[in-house]
Amino acid sequence: MSELDEVPFYDYPTLLERIINKNIIVDDEDHAISELKNHSYYSLINGYKNYFLEVDTTDTMVDNTTFNDFTSTYYLYSDISSLIFKYILYIEKSLRSRLSHIVAREFGVYSSEYLDRNNYKDYQYLRYRTLRDIQEVIDTCKSNSLTHYFKENKKNIPPWIVVQDISFYTVISWSNILPKHLKSELFKDFFENSNLYEWFQEKYFHHSFHFLREYRNLAAHGKRDFKEKINNKLQEESSVHFFGSTLLKKEDLDKNRGLQDLLAAINLILKYTQDIELIHKFLSEFILVIIPYVDEKDYSPTQLINQKSVYQILGLPEDIMDRIALYIQYRTM
């Protein structure tokens, strides 16, 4: 086995020298060091250098790349990540609510009832592990959790309580092991405004919600949507039927866009958010993120980051605003 490289420590002046050696213009060294203290070299430079690399190089930026290009991109991604995280949480809460309502109605409000393995199907061998994980949350609940309060003060811990304390992964798995007729009921709201065939919904639900879970975890830390860090990818043909040509176009697929990235996350938020007012709110907040870089009337790019538009930086189509507006119009018809 080859010897591993050592990762050395660099003080701030040395880090600044390394930045300059990458062909990055630093106009204000004191400001640059302050930014490095606040956000770290790895987050700023390594996280976003791919946008500015010279062709066929791994560590040299194109001419006229500035340190401010990196900070602008970093803050842009931080803002968009916060927005995406927030709206994925709304979808997550919606799933938790729908799932626990069905489970309580069908199987009861006592854990001995609703955790009975005979109530469920063994979808992808998830049943045993899922029910075990829920029981473990009940048995080892933290003292500040809702589950602990009900465990200490009530006769039972109903599904709509324990569902608040289990992981998003377990929520998805719990949904997946429902009997077919209950799973169809759960899917109804999520898929009724699409042309996705019913027999594809189960698999699409599984991968799309796990994609949202993974994307949420990246967004929670303000990280870029590195595809290599996301295991779940939306199936192309099903996505074409699910999103329709308004949200997902052939040119997106030709550019390897829309199945495992920010566009996929935005499209899923639009499709899985049931409250139309919440979709309007998402659009308003999305505009606030991009407005420093676009025209206020038609949202065409105005302010570039090293010759790249905000849409190029985010990996989004330049007509994304038109697509969202048209989709909202369709939803309100």
TrEMBL record:
Pfam families according to UniProt: Abi_2 (PF07751)
Domain of life: Bacteria
InterPro entries registered for this protein in UniProt: Abi_system_AbiD/AbiF-like (IPR011664)
Protein name in UniProt: CAAX protease
Organism: Salinicoccus halodurans
